[in-house]
Amino acid sequence: MWVVDFTYIPTWSGMAFTEFVTDVYSRRIVGWRTMAQMPTDLPLDAREMVFWVRDRAGHVVTGVVQNFYAGT
């Protein structure tokens, strides 16, 4: 199972928006993306990184179900 953390941090040159995809079992960050703005591509790029890394390592990535939760 993977969980996603989306956060933003103020810096001297503006905001930095970052998304981390974490593997719950290993507690390892398996994908991430940082940008100066918050376009739709930011979370999608982080997830694509996970699929690319897992596929390249020879792990099966077909059948993955993504669940989005925008809780407070």
Could you characterize the architecture of this molecule?
The structure is a single chain. The chain is an alpha+beta fold and 72 residues long. It has one domain (2-56). 22% of the residues lie in helices and 39% in strands. The protein has 1 helix and 3 strands; from the N terminus they run βββα. It has one helix spanning 41-56, and strands spanning 2-11, 14-23, 28-35. A 3-stranded antiparallel sheet has the order 1-2-3. Strand 1 (2-11) and strand 2 form a beta hairpin. The radius of gyration is 13 Å and the shape is elongated. 7% of the residues are buried. The mean pLDDT is 80.
Quick structural gist:
With 72 residues, this protein is α+β, with helices and mostly antiparallel strands.
What count of domains describes the coordinates?
1
Percent in helix: 10-25%
Quick check: average pLDDT? 80
Most strands sheet: 3 strands, antiparallel
- What order do the strands of the largest sheet run in, or round the barrel if closed? 1-2-3
Low-confidence sequence ranges: none
How many β strands by DSSP?
3
Characterize the overall form: elongated
CA gyration radius, whole angstroms? 13 Å
Distance from first to last alpha carbon:
21 Å
